[in-house]
Design goal:
The structure is a homodimer of 397-residue chains. The first copy, chain A, is α/β, with parallel strands linked by helices and 397 residues long. The first copy, chain A, has helices at residues 22-28, 38-55, 69-80, 94-105, 123-132, 154-163, 183-186, 212-219, 232-239, 257-273, 275-296, 322-333, 360-376, 386-393, and strands at residues 11-13, 61-65, 86-91, 109-114, 136-142, 144-145, 150-151, 167-171, 190-192, 206-210, 311-315, 335-339, 348-352. Chain A folds into two domains: 21-272, 3-Layer(aba) Sandwich (Aspartate Aminotransferase, domain 2); 275-393, Aspartate Aminotransferase, domain 1. The first copy, chain A, starts with 10 loop residues before the first strand and ends with a helix. Chains A and B meet through helix 1, helix 2, helix 3, helix 4 and helix 10 of A and helix 1, helix 2, helix 3, helix 4 and helix 10 of B.
């Protein structure tokens, strides 16, 4: 007979899920009510407002998709693209490759613009592609590459796309709530994120937002959206955008009620902290972590100007066994850090400082634990100096 | 400023979500761990075994899709169907219509076999369609129609489909855990369910299972699955089927960790009760509810032999305002019952007795509350007799 599963208390400093705020865990266990209950519909309206704040947008169609971030990505692509379309995808890591898969599975053509993993997408390369492909309808790229920790200048990319009459799809899975993101000011037409990164929530939902121009495209498609579940023409009947608390909601699918309680609580926490304060907090603790790791002699993959505070990719020192280190951190410290993905597998660690996990005690725990484990394995790093360097970054001894 | 959302304690006797067992709510709030954590992978293996038991199958590919039941439906269709295929869809309610949408969005042709809403699918009509359409590759139908409360003879339908070399897709959203369901004995090739019905869990996940013959079709497709998120060729790399606790898991998407804790707990509860005991419990309380409702003079939509115990569709008495009654039940009793869907909107109520909601106290609460509200509204029903009739069904006075 199988018995109840009781997970240990880990410290989650990988690429996500990140530590979940206890208030959010408690919210998940509140009583389930119906997905058409008038009180639930009120909560949905609040959720839309809270998400608009997090995304810094007035877009009416700003909702959580009832599935993880990859379904949010798919929502953007299947709704905006029809077979035969051309889409420019700027790739600088794993998730640009997933965008290409999405484009092709819609029967469209992906024009790939490649940049080195660990660097930003280059607007100049995008402009060259836009000139070479006047048939392109959409430009897609990742704001914060979770596989490398590099950030891209969203406004510069969107301005170019619009100059060439393209709409933009932006992956903000790792950026939302962690670093500056301004959907309206930057001209993003479709954006998706995840709940399990800088929002400190559990995985399973994907906040998305669509500009009026994107909605026009969706409403005027020649063909039906290939996914019934993700068809925004149907989803809008349940979530709005023009619903309002008094309007009648049409049943589409059964919303993940308790998961939405969790996201609502996460967004209330973000609202109460203030978005700019959350961004500043991620920067502050990143600086301390960086000081500690660099004091040990570890080096960052991404150039400073393009580096995300919430996803720290550092090279694994020569001769060190990636899996052994991560295994010891988990076994002895209940500390999870992330492995490399794709071409970076075995070469880098990805240390997350996301949402509730982005705290001083976690920074110190991480550098202490790494210092100990790498020391025991005889790795070629400087020992006993990391904590002091991190504390100095906080202005403390 | 928006504050935390604190839902009331409802009694959920609609078509789902149903009442969630408090043990499951508590499980949702356990500490989040990583989706590649060795302990999480162990939990996933247990989950597969528990789902195999619930579905009564040895199918290796038996997993929860990381999204609600409609995504489980889509998983079955997009993986087994390619453009140009012919699929026979037997429709006797809302969800057969959704199957048709799925078929057509795959670029395939749906041959519709229609039966009256509130009755079972007729195997004879299926055989006629199979004879008329030798090009058909798949037969799809609903085991337990959530929109009407009618059940269909799965084994008879699957036997016919196989005689004509078709695979079968079966919707078991409302049946799993509530009424007899034997995937292997009955010859089901692909099946999907939901967590928020007779499993008493929160909504958001969709258990699915695929036979070896179905997996062969998926592995030998000529074209890629149109959904990246739901592509089982990729999902299998994370969930198995041949994984085993020691095998390496490939990252596909981030699993909804805490929602899976809840489903694991729900399945442990089902295992501990015993599947046959759960089926018997649903039948017992249905009989009591039926006795009470019929004593009031309310009539069931579905003929006795085709009636589901867990979803009771009763006709709304002449001159009674559907929404007013449901509104008073919610306002005065915190009791949710379901409205009619599709052509049955405004004509029937759907009273659920699913999972943890399927208890004697709920049966008595429901007939008492209905008796009171219908009495206050002067509805043409017999008052003051329902509770006694329900108690008599339990063998009590």
């Amino acid at each position: 007979m199988i018995t109840s599963f009781h997970p240990p208390q880990r410290t989650l400093m990988g690429p996500g899920p990140s530590d979940v705020n206890p208030r959010i865990l408690e919210a998940l266990s509140r009583p389930t009510i119906g997905h058409l209950d008038p009180l639930f519909v009120q909560m949905m309206e609040e959720m839309k407002g809270l998400l608009q704040y997090a995304f810094q947008t007035k877009n009416e169609l700003t909702i959580p998709v009832s599935a993880p971030g990859s379904a949010g990505m798919e929502t953007c692509f299947v709704n905006l693209i029809e077979a035969g379309d051309t889409v420019i995808v700027c790739q600088n890591g794993v998730f640009g490759g997933r965008m290409k898969e999405n484009v092709e599975r819609c029967g469209a053509t992906a024009i790939m613009v490649e940049d080195a993993w660990g660097t930003a997408c280059d607007p100049q390369k995008l402009e060259d592609a836009l000139k070479a492909h006047p048939e392109a309808k959409i430009v897609a790229f990742v704001h914060a590459e979770t596989s490398t920790g590099a950030t891209t200048d969203v406004k510069a990319m969107c301005d170019l796309a619009h100059q060439y009459d393209c709409l933009t799809i932006v992956d903000a899975v790792t950026s939302l709530g962690g670093t500056e993101l301004r959907v309206d000011d930057w001209g993003v037409d479709a954006i998706y994120s995840g709940t399990q990164k800088c929002l400190s929530c559990t995985p399973g939902l994907s906040p998305v937002s669509f500009s009026p121009a994107a909605i026009e495209v969706i409403k005027n498609r020649k063909t039906k959206v290939q996914s019934w579940f993700l068809d925004l023409n149907l989803v809008m009947g349940y979530w709005g955008p023009s619903g309002g608390a008094g309007a009648k909601r049409a049943y589409h699918h059964t919303a993940p009620i308790n998961a939405l309680y969790g996201l609502h609580e996460a967004l209330v926490l973000l609202q109460d902290e203030g978005l700019e304060n959350a961004w500043a907090r991620h920067a502050k603790h990143h600086n301390a972590l960086r000081a500690g790791l660099e004091a040990m002699g570890l080096t960052f993959v991404v150039p400073v100007a393009q580096r995300l505070p919430q996803l720290n990719a550092v090279s694994i020192p020569e001769g060190v066994d990636d899996a052994q280190v991560r295994g010891l951190l988990l076994q002895d410290y209940n500390l999870e850090i992330g492995a490399g993905l794709g071409v970076m597998a075995g070469k880098v660690w990805r240390i997350g400082l996301m949402g509730y996990a982005c705290r001083k005690d976690n920074v110190l725990k991480c550098v202490t634990a790494l210092d100990d484990v790498l020391g025991r394995l005889g790795a070629p790093v400087n020992h006993g100096v990391a904590v002091a360097a991190a504390l100095a970054s906080y202005g403390e001894k």
